[in-house]
Amino acid sequence: MTTDVTIIGAGLGGLTLARVLHVHGIPATVYEAEPSPAARSQGGMLDIHDYNGQLALKAADLMDEFRGLILEGRQAMRVLDPDGTVLFDKADDGTGGRPEVQRGELRQVLLDSLPADTVRWGRKVSSTRALGGGRHEVTFAGGGTVVTSLLVGADGAWSRVRPLLSTATPEYVGKSVVETYLFDAGTRHPAAAKVVGGGSMIAPTPGREIFAHRERDDTLHAYVGLSEPRDWFAAIDFTDAAMATARIAQEFDGWAPELTALITDGDIAPVLRPLYALPTGHRWDRVPGVTLVGDAAHLAAPNGEGANLAMLDGAELGKAVAAHPDDIEAALTEYEQAMFPRSAEAATFEGAEAHGTDSDDNTAHDLITAFTRHEQAR
């Protein structure tokens, strides 16, 4: 294969693509805006599913490394009412198909599996343009360009590659989450640690929910979901940690103190994360020499599938390119024809993590029903 492969974005999708290509002897270059692998926290826990994320890791020949990252017991799940009553408590018996790992550790495994010069750090894309004949030019902030005959946008929600294919842009879904961390939970935050348990915990109500999971080193990572417009959050000064914490906690007045402790007892300033999505079923007409993977292609509100889909996208695209090394358009067509329905199905899955907080069905009882239905269907 003589086609040069340029991947924009060193997240899980882009790195999985680079790794699968490497397994098949096809070189690729990944350009990443961040200055180094340690430039920022890579997020919390991921449950890697046996029907998509693990398939990608098998294609990348990294299952042994993946198994070494698994945090045992973290598939345990409980659902609570706001008063702290435990309504559902499923232990991790080791038979589940969604083992939990730390996102940053998984990303590092992928980085370590690639030749040292694969990822070019500190290369933020400012623009892309078509040159004709399936070739594209990528321009970087601060100067410099590359020209490539296969360009892959793995650059997330605000992709600079997507405009080559689509005019769609992410829109706010009407919900934001506020992240908190509680460190050394067993000794410093015992009530919160007890209510979360050994894996994940969710207490849902219409418009408000608290979700938390236990990470490595006895850390509790909580996501406090609120269905409010952007202006509502803009009125809160998140640079004043105490004030922001008090304002968010006010929305959970009357909830059990061991649940609200996940808001009020945070060991870092609360972090606001507005949620955006592309239109469900987002797709584009085939454009020679360019495609997208992961959130760049099908950004959705968090539903437990995003990272898994990004990795599967990367793996499937890599396999398609390896299967059609002399016909890139055939490879891209094959990849996109499978990716479009796969991502649309995941976005509309009515499972345990798919209820919007503003839904009247976002209650503990409805969540348990949906979760049980999903487990029986697998």
What keywords describe this structure?
alpha/beta, 5-stranded parallel sheet, globular, 13 helices, 7-stranded mixed sheet
Report a brief summary of the structure:
The protein has 378 residues and is α/β, with parallel strands linked by helices. It has helices spanning 12-23, 53-59, 63-67, 103-112, 185-188, 190-196, 230-234, 241-250, 257-264, 295-298, 306-323, 328-347, 364-377; strands at residues 5-8, 29-31, 45-47, 77-80, 86-90, 100-102, 119-120, 125-132, 135-140, 145-148, 150-153, 171-182, 200-205, 208-215, 219-226, 271-277, 290-292. The chain is 33% helix and 24% strand.
Any overview of this molecule?
The protein has 378 residues and is α/β, with parallel strands linked by helices. Helix content is 33%, strand content 24%. It contains 13 helices and 17 strands. Strands 5-4-13-14-15-12-16 form a seven-stranded mixed sheet, sandwiched between helices. The chain has a five-stranded parallel sheet with strand order 7-2-1-11-17. Strands 8-9-10 form a three-stranded antiparallel sheet, with no helix packed on it. Strand 13 (200-205) and strand 14 (208-215) form a beta hairpin. Helix 1 (12-23) runs parallel beside helix 11 and helix 6 (190-196) packs across helix 9 (257-264). The longest helix is centred in the C-terminal third of the chain and has 20 residues, at 328-347. The radius of gyration is 21 Å and the shape is globular.
